Amino acid sequence: MDDFLKRKLHTDVEGTCTGRFGYIINVLTVKEISKGKVLPSIGLAEFTVKYQAIVFKPFKGEVVDGTVTSVNKMGFFAEVGPLQVFVSSHLIPSDMKFNPYVNPPAFSDENNTIEKGSNCRIKIVGTRFDATDIFAIGTIKEDFCGIL
Amino acid sequence: MSQSEYDYPEEGKDISGGEETKLKKRDYDTYVEEEAGEVENEEEEVEEDEEEDEEDEDEEDDDEYEEDGKKRKKRQFIAQDESEDAQDIDYMQSRHLELNRRRDEEEDFDPEALASELKSRHGRKRITRATGTDLPSFAQIPDVHQPNIWVLKCKPGKEKEIVCYFMKKSLENEYSQHPLEILSVSYRESLKGYIYVEAWQLAHVMRAVTNVNNLYGSTTKLVPLNERGQVFDVRKKQVDLIVGGWVRIKKGKFTGDLAQIKAVEESGDSCRVKLIKRPLKDDDGKMPGGKRKKTSYSSSEARRGYIERDIKITNLEMTSPSMDEISQFHAADNDEEVSKTLAETSLPAMVLRTDFEVGEEVETINSPKKSGIIERIEKNIVYFVGASGRQMEEQVTQLQKKFAVGDHVKVLNGKHRNVTGMVVSISGSIVTIVSDSTNENITVFSKDLRKATEVTRSNNAALSKYELYDLVKIDQVAVGVIVHVESGIFRILDQNEKLISLEASQILYKVDSKKQPVTDAKGNPLKTGDFVEEIDGDFREGSLLHLFKHFAFVKNRSGVENGGVFVTKFKSLLNKSTKSGTIAYDKLNPAIAAIMNQRLPPPPPPPTRNSSFGNRGRGRGHFGGGRGRRDDLIDKTVTIIHGPYKGYIGIVKETSDSTARVELHTNSKIINVEKSKLQMRDQNGGSRPVSLDYGGGSSNYGSPAFSGSTWRPDRSSQWSGSRTPAWNSTMSPNPLISDGSRTPAIHLNDGSRTPAIHMNDGSRTPSWDLGSRTPAWGTDGSETPAWDSGSKTPRWGDGSRTPAYSSDYPGSPATDSTTSFTAPTPAPDTPGFIAATPGVNTPSNYTAPTPVANSKARAIFSLNCDTLIEQKLYPL
């Protein structure tokens, strides 16, 4: 029973995202499993499980490293683990120009190119918490930010 | 006889809309004194006065004298021009006499008298002013002790002329035998065809108005006392028109158009505005949003797309245009060079008080920057509190809303109204945001933004019938996903990945795609919301929005094109969802795993299974009616047995879960009928009801291919009997042994459309059948209900309707499957859940009992796992 519940917890919870805690990366320990309670009229059993987990919640001003997943003229998207970060072209140094003609499309200046797969250091400037997802916008216009 | 001859200090104030001329300043002063008596609001008066010179002369002073002299000179001049006019000569003589008389008076000049006279006059004047503003409005209403006002009709458009005529007449007759006895004549510009005459008696009026051209003296009417005040009451519109400000035109050809004020006329009643030429408004769109142009307006180039018009202020309305309107306005320019400074300088002219709200953060436009949170707004003054608690106040026009990069905001006005997004750049009053839903950049004025907490998915709340990312039916065959909503127009990506724009009324209806059980390339179940990736092509990935037939609509979070939505075949998708409701149950529950391992043959290698399962999943094409997933009711001849169409015969054209669209034989009209109201007709002329319970499975009955060997109409007792062999064939432990044996099993599964069954991969299905059916058959004794219960198990939702079925589910944890059949179901609607509980609690159930119980418990349990165990989160 406990086994089942733990497995259920892992399956259900890991990799999900709540606005309150952010992404739940990994359940470390299950602290307590309450007694099951059969819900009237449904027949389901409800267990309250307390657990400790590693979570990832991005905050404004946080500097994160991510991998660029797509580039378009408005900016680029990067993935920081489970988090999707958008870096608008306004928040990319102005000497980096969008070049739609190369494949894959990229932002580039003389030295650096940001294209799909590049690694990037991004400072998060804003976050949006949905019920099941977090979305952030970042900037690479700051010191030490940009391509790694 | 123009006004400029007289330099009255109050003139500017007194004139607000109409014409005003005075005979003499003396008269004017007298009038003012009268006004004081009348307690009329001087400042709001539109009046043209003409008064008779009945008053005594001792009020005159030097200035007036000189003015009169000037006038006389002018008269003289005019008289010279018309020297032949004897009348004029007479007139001039009379004026000379008057002048002489005044000179005489001047000689008798008594400074003291003058001083006292001045004092009394100006003293009273001051009082006049005070009363004009300070007295409560009821005290300003004229009373019976003041002269009456009569209203007369005249030829429309001739009002001014008539008033001028009276003035002339008054001057001419001033010292004649019959001076005019009326006190004043006036008209209102807004009221065409009427003039007002002020006098003490009606007889005076009648005498004055006889033989006046275009004036209809017979229409003379007394203005009732209580209305008299209103005659001269001018509600002056308090419009602060600023050059460069934006107005909307309320009247005429350009109604509703946005215009920019170029200049305000001196009179203050009209202004010159710049408008876009109408046709140009339509073919713009080349200018990027928010671009503004700095070219000088004097250049004909820049003026090309615009027209300038003088428009009355009353026909204008101050407005606060949004960025797209202004960019549209400037789209008539085609100079790419942007001048944001222009945008900034003209912004104050656009900001209205209504743009601000208490609690918002604002900053001043001019440096030094002051910022704070609005505490209250009074008229056009905004009071706000700085971070240090310092109270500040500022004109609305000097403020703008303050945002920071990363703020989550909502657009309040304009094309992008209600869009939410995050601020990515701020340049003065121009803010660029990234839309939450489409990831597009939107440029708007900061005044049109407000900090938002919620995320708006839909662009237009009013059209909430359809929302962004809804799956909608476009026509009989096509469906699509709404990928963009813009002012009532939905852009829809259809199943062929074609983008079409439709209005709400053109969309047939919203499709619910959730029911369809499908599997991905590897046979794993797919459901909406799952995270999927393509196994070929572009390897696009995203979350599954909708499934329709063999199409899958997938939304990629970072996609920009079509709002990130793309269409693909679901068979080329791979479910990558970590948190899928579709779990491998054997892994989850050790009890089940034990059973599985015991019973199940090893699953065939995936590729084989893919194909075979795919075929199975797609339909009974192999062996039966060959209609795939289609409801076999379609194309059947049915009789309607209830409702207004009772007795009609028709052919089923389309079906949904509960209704069918039937084309009537009689007039080939297609009507919607509930399936329960239909009766199937077969070749033999027999009929049987179409039952909802069978759902897709009803095809088993209807399909001749199937029934050809087994089913005989009208004799339900024989259905099962004739089927028994078929059932038996499914009992083969290994579904792969023969096609013949496997097929019906699959068929059943398919017919019953159970998600639960589909969740098990293909290989398990037969074993489920084999486990469950046979004993059930035997134990129940009565064949028909047993059959029902067997076939319905997966359709747990409907199952409660069949007594035999509901009785299958134990109300309490079942220790023995056999008893479980007899135990009544306390909650027949959700038998699955109830059965699941014991499953969880007493896994031993699964290992011990008869196959019937096992199979059922498993099917039920899988449902349970799918959706239902709730897990609570607690703060760490």
From TrEMBL, chain A:
Q: Which residues form the S1 motif domain?
A: 57-132
User: Which Gene3D superfamilies does the entry link to?
Assistant: Nucleic acid-binding proteins, RNA polymerase Rpb7-like, N-terminal domain
Instruction: Please name the SUPFAM superfamilies in this protein's record.
Output: N-terminal, heterodimerisation domain of RBP7 (RpoE) (SSF88798), Nucleic acid-binding proteins (SSF50249)
Q: Where located?
A: Nucleus
Residues annotated as transmembrane: none
Where on the tree of life does the source sit, at the highest rank?
Answer: Eukaryota
Q: Where in the numbering of this chain does the RNA polymerase Rpb7-like N-terminal domain appear?
A: 2-42
Q: Name one GO biological process term.
A: positive regulation of nuclear-transcribed mRNA poly(A) tail shortening
Its Gene Ontology molecular function terms?
Answer: single-stranded DNA binding; single-stranded RNA binding; translation initiation factor binding
Q: Quick one: a GO cellular component term?
A: P-body
Per UniProt, the keywords (alphabetical) are: DNA-directed RNA polymerase, Nucleus, Transcription
The record's section on Pfam families has:
S1, SHS2_Rpb7-N
What family does this chain come from, according to its entry? Belongs to the eukaryotic RPB7/RPC8 RNA polymerase subunit family.
Q: What is this protein called?
A: 4784_t:CDS:1
**Per the UniProt entry, what species is this protein from, by scientific name?**
Ambispora leptoticha
Automatic annotation (TrEMBL), chain B:
Q: Which SMART domains match?
A: CTD (SM01104), KOW (SM00739)
- Residues annotated as signal peptide: none
Q: Is Nucleus set as a keyword in this record?
A: yes
Specify the domain of life of the species encoding this protein.
Eukaryota
Establish whether keyword Nucleus is in the entry: yes
Q: Where is the composition biased (Polar residues)?
A: 700-735
- Where is the segment annotated Disordered? 1-121, 280-299, 598-630, 675-826
| Name of the featured protein | Transcription elongation factor SPT5
